[in-house]
Amino acid sequence: MLTAALNILKQHYGYTTFRPGQQKIITSLLNNKDTLAIMPTGAGKSLCFQIPALLLPGVTLVVSPLISLMKDQVDALNGVGIPATFINSSLTLSQVNERIYNAKCGRYKIIYIAPERLESESFQAAIKVLTISLLAIDEAHCVSQWGHDFRPSYRAVGTFITSLPNRPIIGAFTATATTDVTQDIITLLTLRKPDIYMTGFDRENLSFTVIRGENKQDFTLKYITTNKEQSGIIYAATRKEVDNLYSLLYKKGYSVGKYHAGLPDKERQHYQEQFIYDNISIMVATNAFGMGIDKSNVRYVIHYNMPKNMEAYYQEAGRAGRDGEPSECILLFGAQDPLLQRYLIEQTTFDTDRKTNEISKLQTMVDYCHTPECLRKFILSYFGETSDLTECDNCSNCKDDNELTDITLDAQKIFSCVMRVKERYGTTLIASVLKGSKDKKVLQLGFDSLSTYGLLKNYTLPEIRDAINRLIATDYLMLTDSEYPVVKLAPKGVAVLKNQTKVWQKVPKRTQKITVDNS
Ligand code: ADP
Known about the structure:
By secondary structure, the chain is of the alpha/beta class. It contains 21 helices and 17 strands. Helices cover about 45% and strands about 15% of the residues. The protein is elongated. Bound molecules: adenosine-5'-diphosphate. Its cofactor is Mg(2+); Zn(2+).
């Protein structure tokens, strides 16, 4: 069985060895076991269902949300001699019928389908006469509202499976590994005692950098100028920001394209192709860009804004360096970023539970931007991968040569302010009180008469928020798990207030002077 799989790998794909995890996943599916494969972007999930598809009798259905890419994926398969097709809303009824007819005649081994199809009764009836050996569900996290890309149409997959006369083997594939998403995938996609494989979340060739408190535009211009020949993606949070950044770079003569959901299909398609075929070097985009795009030589991914959670971040950053060559993932954190993401969550129609969950995931993202620890370690432990890694020497924290500084005094000022406002307010308000701001809310609450009012007036507001965020990320402070998280003192912070321990942190160079100002 394994030899047959290896032969296909060589014959059709031209690769000599399997990547970590691929062999086990393929074997599990061929052994008739429902399988859940959790692999990071770029790790090579597609082969894991395409190879079994060729070895099993009948046909494999692949459910995928990537309608715009199905044609490319199918063309690529046909190109390597694998009989495949797709069925989605881009086809006319007669084209759909023709493909179903061909499928009945056994002309395909793989059929890509959009999840919406499964809701159509006539399609269900037509497809039931096929021998479906394997149902592969790509981007399986789309079934879960706890994932970062919930698609209600994925809920139809479970019902479809139960309606089939002969239950196929089910393979679910995703890059999202949180417990709640995993549980949803198993339950909602009706996996039966699945084998679960989680592989290699570490992408050694990627370096990770977080930059706080720098002018984003200046940084980006400088970076792309020194990396002019390279291909890179710049992700921004809003369409407007994408348009602005694109215009700026275009006017300055950079080879740049843009992509967001507000652009006409044709224009998006055009830029996407130009980027994939290396006719333009830089793609400025919202998170609408990139899912399923297999461009191997992306040398950098810059996040112009912080994304909403770690899953989204790692998936987007992971589009760099798929060819295994050294590549950079840079996140430019701005104090406005968490506020914008929070606003976006608040604007949704999610119920309170889901909003609270999204906000707590957002906080982990903010923690990533402020942790003094190895960034790679932070990512790996978020995805549940335990590692012996203490320092990776390939992230901005491991390479940080700022001196460890005793910031106990400033930390105590922050902690006492948290106590003075009775642990009932969020980061922004506490920062305003410490700054001595004349903010309406601060004055209304009478916080200008607190003893901690204006205690850190020599710092800028973003610097104070930054300091608070760092103290949250290092567990001196904590945020409540609620729709409107409030800052509370953690046991580590209490010990500092009682002068039992000190706080040492690597403080960014720009703010070090302020520690002196305050003395
Ligand atoms: P994912 O779906 O996990 O993001 P893909 O299936 O698109 O990843 O694979 C990413 C890239 O890795 C593709 O270019 C694919 O051809 C390549 N790849 C997959 N498996 C192997 C392998 N065993 N050896 C070499 N390259 C591989």
